[in-house]
Structure formats: C-alpha cells, structure tokens
Amino acid sequence: MAEHFKPETPEQVKDAMAWAIAEEIPLEVIGGGSKRSLGRPSNAETVLELSALKGITLYEAEELVLSAGPGTLLSEIEATLAESRQQLAFEPPDYGPLLGGPAQAGTLGGMIACNLSGPRRIQSGAARDHFLGFGAVSGRGEAFKSGGRVVKNVTGYDLSKLLCGSWGTLGAMTDLTVKVLPVAEKTWTVLVLGLDLETAGQAMTAALKSPYEVSGAAHLPANLAAMSKTSYVAEAGGGVTAIRVEGPGPSVEYRVAALRKQLSAFGETEELHSHNSGGFWRELRDVLPFAAADDSRCVWKISVAPTAGPALAGQLTESLAGDAFLDWGGGLVWLAVDAPQDGSAETVRAAVDAVGGHATLIRAPEPVRAAVPVFHPSSAGVSALSKRVKENFDPRGLLNPGRMYAEF
Asked: What pTM value is reported for the model?
C-alpha cells in the first residue's frame, strides 16, 4: 500500500524526505490537493501532503508583510487581511469550480507553487513578484531558506523566484512570506458595449496607454457576457469590454469619467460601481464562464502579446468551434474547446507558436493530460537549463516526477 505522509512540522517534512531518499521512492507533493488535476498526472504513488503546516505565523500590517504555512487556506489569509483593509495584490484566482471541486479550498503554498495570478497582474505583477521568502526541504533532504521579510532583500540568490511556479518539483515549502498591499478605497469599472474582438482589443489598448492607471482590461463576447451574474453585463445584449480603475474615491470618479469620454469613440459606455465591479472581476479571475457543472470542455490558458490576443482568439474559436474571452488587455486568452481526445493541442500550439507565446492546458481529462504536453514545450536551451536546476535541487528525481514534463 502506498504511503501518505501528512507532517505537522518542518522537521517531520525533512524526516519524510530522508525516508523517500533512502528508499528511492518518488513523492507527490501537494498542499490541500485542490490543484491535483492541474498539470500532468503525478508519476508518484506516495503522497507528501503539507496541509497540516498551516496558520498565519506573522502579520505586520504596517510593514505590509505576512508569513504563513503552505497549507494555510487563502480564504483565511484574505479574511485576515480584509480586517486591515489589505490584500494580496496579485489577485490569486480560485480555480476550484473550474476544476470540478469546491470553492475556497486553495492554499497559499499551492498558489505560490503554481504562480497563479488574476486580472490585476497587468498592474501589480505576478505572484512571484509578491513572494518575499520561504523555508523548504529539497530533494536532497536538506532544509534551506531564501529571502526574508522585506522587499529589497539582496542576501544570496533570489530562490523565491525559482520556486514560485516550480509546481513542487524543486522542494517542499514549509513556510512562506508574501508582500501585502492596501485595498483601494474605490473600485469602478467602465464597460464598453457591443464591440467585436478586434475593436475590443483597440479599446483596451487605448485605455492601457492612457494616463488613468487601469488595473484590469478584459473582454467577454456576447454569449459569455450573458452568463454573468452582474446584471449590467448579462443584459448588455452583446460583447462587453471592461476597464477597471482603482484608488481614492475622487481620483477614481475623475478617471472613470475621463475614460468613458475617451472610449465613447468605440461604442456605448456604462459603469459598474464597487459591489458590482468586485463581483464581475471575481468571475473573470476564477474563469467562471467555463466553470459550469455541465461544461466538460478542455480549457486552455494562452499568453501572448496583447496586440495578438484578439486575432488569435477569433482564429481559434472559429477553427475549433470553441469559446474564448480576453484578459490582461488581450495578453491572456482563455479558450474552451470540445476535444476530449487531445484537447486540440496541435492546433492550439501551432497557432500560438505562429504569434509567439505559450499555451497551458488547464483543464482536461487525465488521459489527455498524460498524453499531451500540459505546459508549452520549451526550447532545447531552456529545457536543458531546467533539467540542470532540477538535478541540483532533486538529484534523484523524487519530487513530483512528471508533474510538469514527462522526462523529469
């Protein structure tokens, strides 16, 4: 019978790693397990679950820093931050419903390990930009730390950037420290109604190039807009292009008015205020247009240059009879296709390669994720470098083998 380790202390994590090394037994490293269906299926039968390493261990609101165990629920962290009107500015998404699981089950460790960020990435950066430090146990069985509790920490190598997005293949994190930021006084959204993909791309570009500090820019085609729980969006009767503005009240009101005037050249405009605006951007953050219980389509997350996004979305939805919407000003294309055998991987990747970018298969049946590269294939040079990094942190290849790439 396969073992299932659930350590309660960093020392127990180190003991479990030492056992795996001695026995040469691969480990599937997970937090709470809410993202097990993201990435390739694990090649390991023995589980190292870090959910018992939980709880906020440090929170200094005035210093904008928080430390917690990897198994700490993001919902707990966000509730604590909300009491001081602070937030994780990279807007961590909740993919639970999209992946067929419960909402609010994600952990801090899982979010950082996967480097997942929401719509505010265009302004605030990715999760790794807010990851200050950690403690971990490597595949050598060695406990190590990196970073600290300040943003400008220059001691040693910046390993936080390396572990963030490594999907548990380089080490088992035992504690994490992240930067937090104040919540904006107001969050309003300008809606431009009835635009097609190309015109929506132009409108988002105009907004992002304006001096009005946009923190979100997205576009929903008519059929997906109609599914929104925000009435102004659902009842628009066409495509909806959304531009988010955040900050002090008077500043937001001024910038929204200026944007509405500027964007009226593209189409009719409307605006969402704080409650409706928050709900709408959570829908986009969590990819809820593709999270319905009866939606079994494969879902791709495609990153390209913002100017290439609208045309790529149009090309793929037409050729694959799928649905798509845009985020990050057109730089992120969410695509859903009915292709249970291969996820239309060949067509998607060829289209992405033609414009330069990468495509990640976020949701698909396990046989598809085992047969099709989930992450965009790397160049020979990048692949060789990744293998050398893996060998240095995990020379026996015991941590989440095959989780990202079949060969390591």
From this structure: 0.95
